[in-house]
Amino acid sequence: MKIAIQRIKWTNIFLNILIWGFAVLWISPFIGIFMTSVLPYREVILYGWLRIPFDISLSNYITVLTDPLYDLAKGYKNSLIVASIGTIIPMFLAALTAYGFTYFNFTLKTLLFGLILFMLTVPQQLVVIPLFKLYIDIEKTFGIQLIDSLIGISLLHSAWGISWLIFFFKNYFSLIPKSITDAAKVDGASDLTIFFRIILPIAIPGVIAGSLIQFTWVWNDLFYALIFLISPDKYVITREVLNIKGQYHVDWGLLSAGSIIAMTLPLVIYILFNKYFIKGVVGWGVKA
Amino acid sequence: MGREGMNEDYIKLININKKFGKTIAVRDVNLSIKREEFFALLGPSGCGKTTTLRIIAGLEYPDSGKVFIDGIDVTYKEPRERDVAMVFQDYALYPHMTVFDNIAFPLTIRKSGLTKIEINEKVHFVAKLLGIEELLERKPRQLSGGQQQRVALARALVRNPKVWLMDEPLSNLDALLRVQMRAELKKLQKDLKIATVYVTHDQIEALTMADRIAVMDKGTIIQVGTPSEIYNNPNNVFVATFIGSPPMNILECNMEDDIIKYAGFQIKKVIGITTNKFYLGIRPEHLKIVNNINEVAKNEIVIKGKIYVIEPLGSEFIVNVKINDHIIKAKTLQSPQLLSGEEVYLSFNVNNAYIFDRNSGKYLMKLIDIYQDKN
Amino acid sequence: MKSDVRKNLIFFIPTFSFLALFVIYPIIYTFILSFESENVYTSNNYYKVLSESNPLLMLIAKNIGPSPPWGALLHNIVWVLIHAPVTIILSLVIAYIIKYYNIKGSSLIKALLFLGMVIPPVIAGFIIRFMFDENIGIIPKIMKLLSLDIILGIPELSKTWMNYPSLALFSLILGSIWLWLGFSITIISAGMEAIPKSHIEIAKVFGASPFKILFKVIVPELKPVILTVFILTILWDLKLFDIVYASTGGGPGGSSTVLALIMYQYFIHASRYGGYGMSATVAVILTLITLFPALIYIYRSLKRS
Description:
The complex is a heterotrimer of chains A (288), B (375) and C (305).
Chain A: H1 2-38, H2 41-47, H3 59-66, H4 72-103, H5 109-121, H6 125-142, H7 150-173, H8 178-187, H9 191-202, H10 204-220, H11 223-228, H12 237-244, H13 252-272, H14 274-287
Helix pairs in contact in A: 1-13, 3-13, 4-7, 4-10, 4-12, 5-7, 7-10, 8-9, 10-13, 10-14, 12-13
Chain B: E1 9-20, E2 23-34, E3 38-42, H1 49-57, E4 64-69, E5 72-73, E6 84-87, H2 99-108, H3 116-129, H4 145-157, E7 163-167, H5 175-192, E8 195-200, H6 203-209, E9 212-217, E10 220-225, H7 227-232, H8 237-242, E11 249-256, E12 259-262, E13 265-267, E14 277-282, E15 288-290, E16 300-312, E17 317-323, E18 326-332, E19 343-349, E20 353-357, E21 363-366
Parallel strand pairs in B: 3-8, 3-9, 6-7, 7-8
Antiparallel strand pairs in B: 1-2, 1-4, 4-5, 9-10, 11-12, 11-14, 12-13, 14-20, 15-19, 16-17, 16-19, 17-18, 20-21
Helix pairs in contact in B: 2-3, 2-4, 3-4
Chain C: H1 2-7, H2 13-33, E1 36-37, E2 40-41, H3 44-51, H4 72-100, H5 106-113, H6 115-118, H7 121-131, H8 138-145, H9 148-151, H10 165-193, H11 197-205, H12 210-221, H13 223-239, H14 242-247, H15 259-268, H16 277-304
Antiparallel strand pairs in C: 1-2
């Protein structure tokens, strides 16, 4: 009996070490990037980054943020603007439409919802060319500049986010008991009133989860940025960091610093709202 | 209660039909509910009572037919245009609002021109009426089931609605509270004199609270009447067995040469009935245990059987008697002092025996109408 | 009820107008464009795009040798064929050990591994490039340490993988396994939570080994979840762009191209290829390929609700 318990303990200990070892191994690239960003590049090459640093320097960060060649500070600001607008607009529109899909019955409902689902499956590549031409045409005809404009790209992100947010919110709203909207109707509320004063307040956790995911998605985008942002002072941060990587020679000190800066916000959002993320993702995966 | 206009039809449903997909929920429903009446819609689940209620509320529109409230055609009007209030089975309180805001909600969202002070007064008035004044600042999740119920009632009352609609409001409460609330609700309704439509599947609730009951089954109304009418004069075997606890005993009988034959007895000299097969119905409380078979009175029929089991209910006893393979229940006030398996004689008066058609279930006549006593 | 929508158009009109302009119209127009070349309508684009032999642009190579470039389409397919099974098996094993062997701090571990989903893919591309760099990256160093480069006879293993056509694609594939492991572990873990403990206990009572329990008891009950992970992985691997663009740009010599990248190349050099037609064609091909697994995914999620 004692031997069996001992064996079990050893197995558990071994597996604990294995899994934790694996986790450490898994996270080492992040550690490596961080180390490379705070140590002089030369030292990294000569001595590796796997050591306790004795002379940390933030020069890479300072360079990458302020040097007009890289100007990540501007990129950060641009990303904030684009991600914010690109979250608020779709969130609002999608919540409204999700309400409609949840609480109204009408003949076109299945067709329209099917359309939404179809749009979910399509890759971004399928829409950019006409959008690019559309923006050029709009500029030519109306003089409104949408290419190389933060508003322009924010609108594109908004449109892209609406479909999945509708799906997301519809699932969420359907968890709210129907008797509550029935009661509100009998109490005399119009659908818009019910939407703003009953459903939205109750759905706040879902709204937060959806917004965080959408914000992160927009922040992380590169493809739209490559196509629709042209002048460096309009670059979002993901586009900006790309510039740090030279064609032939990579200054890893600068690139890693830039990477860390670009990652911080999504990382912080994730750490703070971890629960919401996981719940949202698990909802996607396990439900299907 | 001789108030003028009290007897007029306040809520009228005319030929209401409603289908959901292929399922018929409500078929040819006609109802007239009076101004201060407590009217129950009673029936098993799926009978259409909730759908009927929702059609009155405006949460569903009928496929055909009309709905009138206080003389106005409201068939296709939205709920808020009907001046009705509703209480739901799960109370449907707004979880993110305080009790006060929940109750005030019907007032705050209508452009009723009420000042904040007036709203405050009204909320406090109904809260006091229902004994929940100390709960006004709490959130629904902090309340017990019974308290949430009262908040739902308060919210339904605050606007002085013309009509009160209730969808099984007591079924989520525990038994003791339910009995208590039944009396309170009935008193409240009597005091406030609001036309009330009350949906329930619990026949005791309907019998104790309602002025009139509509018994429904499979989307149609089987019978409308006062509790005593429904109880004493059921027009259908469905109503007869649905009302009453334990349910009415139903015996399948055959007629041969003027003799009703059933496994435990024969009834001779029966005339005036044309069907050969029918149901004979006798309520448990109308069956007596016969101690001396020679003391059976005129117009009483005797049945012989064996005691199956006796269920003591405190103040009364349910005696289950086996006749052939059939169990008949009798309700007595005293224990029969018999054991399972022993022979027993039950008797009933022919005035208390109902005859129903075997095919349609319709009430035909009472046994007394066709019975000729030998004496 | 019919009047519901009529009185409440605001719930639908703004959204669908927006979508009509920014999504529906572009989708339709891209399809049309794919048949356009030099301002003429032709189905030639599809033929040209599929028969292209320039490694930087080709979708399917004419001669398939032992090492890439094999053409972007084949690269995507190889990606799926390696990524999906490896991720699923790895996730099953790890999730299994974490759940049933009392691993301390398991939620922290899962949260940590999930980081890969959260960072910008372009940054992930840099990190992967970093991992495989011969000077500062871990992988080449490990290869050298374990002398795998000598044992397997592939000296490039201890150098920067991205510099060699034979290794570039695989460095990215391995990187993507690393990156997205957290996602599949999370989902499979959640699926395992739904398995009643009693099923496992019964198997243990019958003396089943851990392997048997995992593969004979757990996996069958996880089939729907596994299928979901499988489909989602396929969808990602087909649509990849950022990671590749950031780390190899499709090189060297087109040995790590992917469909989305090819679409981009045709786009920015549109004037060279007679307009945007070719780019649109690749976009359509990409869409058609992803449509199949995507529709399966949607069909299944609709069935569940």
